[in-house]
Specification:
Blueprint: H1 2-10, H2 24-29, H3 34-39, H4 62-75, E1 81-82, H5 92-95, E2 108-109, H6 115-131, H7 136-142, E3 153-156, E4 162-166, H8 174-188, E5 194-197, H9 204-212, E6 215-218, H10 221-226, E7 231-234, H11 241-249, E8 253-256, H12 260-274, E9 278-282, H13 288-294, E10 301-304, H14 307-311, E11 321-325, H15 331-342, E12 349-351, H16 357-372, E13 375-379, H17 385-397, E14 401-404, E15 419-425, H18 431-448
Parallel strand pairs: 4-15, 5-6, 5-7, 7-8, 9-10, 9-11, 11-12, 13-14, 13-15
Antiparallel strand pairs: 1-2, 3-4
The structure holds FE3-S4 cluster.
């Protein structure tokens, strides 16, 4: 056979496959991998075929896949770490990183965006979202090509066989950053005592640090009722109207760090309630954000969390229906549930897609890199629902997806010797943790080259 002839011609005597033949997937498919075929020689310069042949025959070899990723990243106007950037500088966030950022040994092309740029872009996405109609972001996201979502940092090893991609959207979203900054600002101003209504974010490291600085977490309404002096900071999830009333009647000072996107939903629900509409919130009934949204309605509210609930939904009134969503709800599920409920043919049915762009962007980027990756690392707290959703999305695309809560959870043996490692993180994951994990992965990969 032609393929057998090719194999015989190009296989080194000491095949890397213990069985002394080409890897099983190629063998089964009856042909050699595309890269081998095209180049007429083994694509791994080390002279081993199995390292170069990907998970299954027909997939691009590692080198080609990394090159495709590089082109996607560069196509989005970015460069790759290690290669000369337009101005020859490393991004500001790398320069500032704890252990010096990427080593000069890495082959360079680098993302020239600075941390400041990222913050600026987050801000601009906020205003865009606020100005756009509630579902305005949807078509833009639907129209985004997979490569278009890849706007993060890419490092490629000198031998071109290993790459690490760090999602641009990994970590604190605008609302969480704003809430955390607010607490630190209050501390710096010398305000005492400071309370947060619930943990400011779902991250034990940050919450512990704040506790050490004297910030106390109020765990329940009952606890809040007992407090008679001090400042209460409302976290990005927001709260219902009743919580503001308790704070006010107890003579407490309130600092409102509710995310503006969430605040917008409060206003919608309040207004629609006044207009006599029945409100449907698509989201998790037990999530504080949903409880807070619910707390702004003056009329009937139903929370729909599952497909079953959408199918069995029966309006409580004959008033117009208004649908909103938890900001971090899965977009696909949201549309599915809306379609199901629309099929039930209620007369007036207004749908406001209030899913946050930050979540969409994070999920789209994570999905895109997970499709290409040999190993995905998702960093975040175990109580963070958006990190868990991110993990589920990545796991669907890449079976080697790992949940890392703290630096110590990172098992470096899981980082592959060849291929693409992707890193993403939930909205409440501190940047310092992401950088630590990313730096260690890069060092590990480099040490193997
Ligand atoms: Fe706000 Fe979106 Fe973050 S709603 S808290 S910016 S995920």
């Amino acid at each position: 056979m032609e393929n057998e002839r090719r194999i015989a011609e190009h296989m080194p005597d000491e095949s890397c496959d213990a069985a002394g033949k080409i890897c099983e997937s190629c063998d089964e498919a009856g042909k050699i991998c595309d890269a081998y075929d095209e180049t007429g020689k083994i694509c791994d310069t080390a002279g081993k075929i199995c390292d170069a042949v990907e998970k299954s025959c027909g997939e691009m070899c590692v080198r080609e896949r990394i090159e495709a990723l590089r082109q996607a990243v560069c196509g989005n106007g970015l460069s790759v770490h290690g290669e000369a950037s337009a101005n020859g500088d490393l991004p500001a966030d790398q320069e500032a990183s704890a252990n010096g950022g990427p080593s000069a040994d890495w082959e360079a092309p680098a993302n020239g965006s600075s941390l400041a740029d990222r913050e600026a872009s987050t801000d601009s996405s906020l205003s865009a979202d606020q100005e756009a109609p509630a579902n305005g972001g949807l078509s833009a996201v639907a129209g985004t090509s997979e490569s278009g979502a890849l706007k993060g940092d890419l490092w490629v090893s000198p031998d071109g066989l290993c790459a690490l991609y760090q999602a641009r959207s990994a970590g604190f979203c605008f609302g969480v950053r704003r809430a955390v900054d607010t607490v630190y600002e209050q501390i710096e101003k010398g305000i005492r005592p400071i309370y947060t209504y619930g943990p400011i974010i779902h991250n034990e490291v940050v919450v512990r640090d704040l506790e050490e600085k004297g910030v106390r977490v109020i765990q329940s309404v009952e606890e809040l009722r007992r407090i008679r002096s001090g400042t209460v900071i409302i976290r990005s999830h927001g709260v219902g109207r009743d919580i503001y009333s308790i704070i006010e009647s107890n003579g407490l000072r309130v600092v409102d760090a509710t995310c503006p996107f969430v605040k917008k939903i409060h206003r919608i629900v309040e207004q629609k309630g006044k207009e006599g509409a029945e409100v449907i919130i698509i989201g998790s009934a037990s999530h504080p954000e949903v409880q807070g949204i619910r707390g702004w309605s003056t009329g009937e509210v139903t929370v729909i969390e599952t497909e079953e609930e959408a199918r069995s939904f029966v309006p409580r009134t004959d008033k117009p229906l208004c649908v909103v969503s938890q900001t971090t709800f899965n977009l696909k599920k949201f549309h599915k549930f809306v379609e199901i409920m629309k099929g039930l043919r209620y007369h007036e049915f207004a749908v406001l897609n209030t899913i946050c762009n930050a979540t969409e962007e994070r999920q789209t980027e994570a999905r895109s890199i997970a499709r290409l990756a040999d190993c995905m690392i998702v960093i975040g707290g175990k109580h963070s629902s958006n990190t868990q959703k991110l993990y589920e999305i990545c796991q669907k695309e890449c079976s080697n997806t790992y949940f890392v809560q703290a630096f110590d959870d990172l098992n470096l043996r899981l980082v592959p010797f060849r291929g693409i490692v992707g890193i993403s993180a939930g909205a409440s994951t501190p940047n310092i943790l992401i950088e630590e994990v990313s730096n260690l992965c890069r060092k590990t990969i480099l040490s193997r080259c």
